[in-house]
Design goal:
Length: 145
């Protein structure tokens, strides 16, 4: 069972961003499971690396999109992302140094930082795209000649 299930309450309405947010929760789930079932530190470290890499990838994609639509408050949004990444780095440090409680730290991060970020900053930033096709929603150019 998923520890961090997706909810339609998290949907921003931008399908690309929403798919990436679902993936973020799935990577968080994998890490939580690795920690919860006491897999080796190597497995948990790999799961955390996957979460960290995907988090960086997603934030970069989202920031590029927000820049392309000239979303207001982008500098503040970037700082929120940087802070969320620092949290993941702190988890990695704690895991590598065998600090107990990384699972609880992860659950806190997802439920009190990541999800509220999606529901507040992301939704606010993407609200201006509601009802109008966004750049990411445009169909690929036809290859017919
Ligand atoms: Fe964001």
């Amino acid at each position: 069972m998923s520890r961090f299930p997706w909810s339609d309450d998290y949907a921003t309405g931008n399908w690309v961003i929403d798919i990436q947010h679902r993936r973020l929760l799935e990577f968080a789930d994998l890490l939580f499971e690795a920690l919860d079932t006491h897999r080796t530190v190597d497995i948990a470290t790999e799961a955390l690396a996957a979460l960290e890499n995907y988090t960086r990838y997603h934030f970069a994609e989202e920031e590029a999109f927000l820049a392309s639509i000239r979303a207001p408050g982008l500098a503040k949004h970037r700082r929120a992302h940087a802070s969320l990444i620092l949290d993941v780095e702190a988890m990695r440090f704690n895991l590598v140094s065998r600090h107990p409680g990384v699972g609880a730290q992860l659950a806190r991060w997802v439920l009190t930082c990541l999800v509220p970020h999606m529901q507040n900053e992301d939704m606010a930033s993407l609200a201006i795209t509601k009802g109008t096709p966004s750049v990411l929603r445009q169909p690929l150019p036809s290859t017919k000649t």
